[in-house]
Amino acid sequence: MKSGIKWISILLIISIIGYFAYPKIKAQFVTESSEEQPPQRSSSSGLPVSAQVIKAEKIDDKINVTGSVIANESVELKSEISGKIVRIYFKEGSSVKKGDLLLSIEDDELSAQLERLRNQKELLDQSEYRNRQLLDREAISQEEYDISLTELKTAEADLKLVMAQLAKTKIKAPFNGIVGLRHVSEGSYITPTTSITNIYNIDPAKIDFSIPGKYSNRVNLGDKIRFVTDAVEEYREADIYAIEPQVDPTTRTLSMRAVCSNKDHALLPGQFAKIELIFHTYDNAILVPTEAVIPELGGHKVFVSKNGRAETVQVKTGLRTDRNVEIVSGLNPNDTIITSGLLQLNPGSPVSLTLIN
C-alpha cells in the first residue's frame, strides 16, 4: 500500500516539472530551427498579364470577294438550217481548231439546185455575150441587151444564194477550243433550235466578280487579283481587263472581269473562286491584336508596359484583318503592348508580364 502511494507521488512530481518546463523547451527548439533555415523573402508581384512586343510587318489593303470562272470563248453549237445529219466528224472532249469540219447535213437537194443554176448561168453568159456584140453593131436595142444582162445577174444571185445555203450544211468550229458532249447522232433530224454540242476555249480563263460600289474609285484596268478555287488550292494571279461602266442599282456593286493563263486547263468554266483584290501593300505597318485595342469616346487606347507598370497610350487605328488592327500613330516598333487583363488595369498598375508571340 505504501509502495503504491510512493509511485503515485513520483509520477505526480514528474508531471508538475514537465508542465512548467515544456514551454521553455519548445521555445528553445523553435529558436534553433529558425537559426538553421534561411530567412524567406516576401515578394509582392504585379497583376499577371499577357504581353507582346510589336514589330513592323507587311500588310495588304485588300478586300475579299467571290466570283466565277468562265471560258475565254464558249458557244452552243446549232445548225442554221433544218435537215438530217449525214456524218459527225468530231469526238467528244477532243480539241479542235478554227475551221475544222464538225458535222454535215444532207445536201442532195441543194446540190441539184446548184448544178441547175450553174447550167442556167452558163447559157445566160453566152446570151449576154452575143447581145453585147449585136449592140456594138447596133443590131439590137439597148433595152434588149439590158434584159439579157439583168437575167444573167439574177442567175448569179440565185447561184450565190444556193451556195450559201449549201455551205450551211457543213458545220465548222468557230474557234480553237475543246468540244463538249454531243446531244445528237448520225441520222438525227435537226432544226435551228436543236443543241448539237458546246465548244469552249479555256486558255486563257476569265474570272467574273463584283465589288462594293464604294471601292469603284480604287480599282483600275491592269490591277491584279489573287484567287483560289475548290480544285486549285494554290493562289493564282489574274489581270483586270474590263470594268462595267456603271454600278448595279439593285446590288450597289461594280462588275468586272479578269484574265488568267490556264495552260494546264485546271480552271474550268463554272468553278467558284475566292478572290483577293489588293489595293495597296504596306511594308512597315504596326499590327496589334484586336483584343488589345480599347474603344473610348473620341478614339481608341491601348495599355503598354513600361518599367513594370501599365500605361495608357492614345492610338489611331487603320486597316483591320481577322485578328489584328493596324496602328497608324501612337505606337512604335519594340513597344510592349498588354493583351490580357485589360479590365483590371489602371494607369500605373504594376504588372507581371508573360510574353507571347
The beta-strand count equals 19
Structural class: alpha+beta
**Share of residues in helices:** 25-40%
Question: How far apart, in Å, are the first and last alpha carbons?
Answer: 88 Å
Beta-strand percentage? Answer: 35-45%
Q: Note the total helix count.
A: 3
- The rounded Rg comes to 47 Å
- Identify low-pLDDT runs: 29-44
Task: Write a brief structural summary.
With 357 residues, the protein is α+β, with helices and mostly antiparallel strands.
Helices and strands, with pairings:
Layout lengths: L1 H35 L10 E7 L2 E22 L5 E6 L6 E2 L4 E5 L2 H29 L5 H26 L2 E3 L4 E3 L9 E2 L6 E16 L11 E6 L6 E8 L9 E8 L11 E18 L4 E3 L2 E8 L2 E12 L3 E6 L6 E3 L12 E5 L2
Parallel strand pairs: 1-19
Antiparallel strand pairs: 1-18, 2-9, 2-13, 3-5, 3-8, 4-7, 5-6, 7-9, 9-12, 10-11, 10-13, 11-12, 13-17, 14-15, 15-16, 16-17
Helix pairs in contact: 2-3
